[in-house]
Amino acid sequence: MNKRLVITLVLVEIVLGVILYTHVLDQPQEATFPIYDKFDTGLDGWSYWGDSGYVLEWVSNTAKISGDGYSVDSGMQKVVDLTNWDQSEALLLPFDYRATSDYNSPSGTTGAFLWIQIADTSLSLYRENLVKEGTADTGWRNYVKNISMHVHTNRRIRIILYLHDGWGPNWHQTNAYDNIKLSSTT
Ligand SMILES: [Ca+2]
Ligand SMILES: [Ca+2]
Asked: How many A from CA of 113 to the centre of ligand 1?
């Protein structure tokens, strides 16, 4: 083989390697049941979900969503493989959450939502509005729910925690989450 051909082949291999590696990094990480995410060292495999305008950041050992948009749903997601879950037992989802904004509006400036989907199809299994009343800062609150009857026999679910920004102005809406557990015991 001549030298030029060898160099070309090596370069092609490097480019393909970089493309493949970047693609692998793009894949959302999948967690295995049970999970307990305390965000002590980072985002614990949670990734950004939803419309653009917001960012997901690791702040003060919590996961925080902040930014600005108009008519957007933005938050964070994690896919969990439930093969290890015994369906005769509970599927408990406890977590701590806090929502803030600059505008104390009863129509949901400060807000937070939970959404459970089938991971492969994004079909909805359960959705809940966690903050309904008008307040500028909910403070840290605790949530817990047994989602077993909503998940049924599905084996891969996506947990989404997000906010809705339906405002043209920037009211500095944020969500923060911590101590997210998916387990048969609290
Ligand atoms: Ca924490
Ligand atoms: Ca806005």
From this structure: 20
Least distant ligand from the CA of 72: 2
Rounded to the nearest angstrom, the distance between the alpha carbon of 144 and the centre of ligand 1 is 17
Question: Whole-model pTM?
Answer: 0.85
For the chain, list the domains and their CATH numbers. Answer: 29-182 (2.60.120.260)
Collapsing DSSP states into helix, strand and coil, what is residue 8? helix
Angle at 177 between CA 88 and CA 27, to 5 degrees: 75
SS3 33: coil
Nearest to 114 by CA among 144, 140, 149: 144
**What does the pLDDT read at residue 22?**
59
Q: Are strands 30-32 and 72-81 parallel, antiparallel or unpaired?
A: parallel
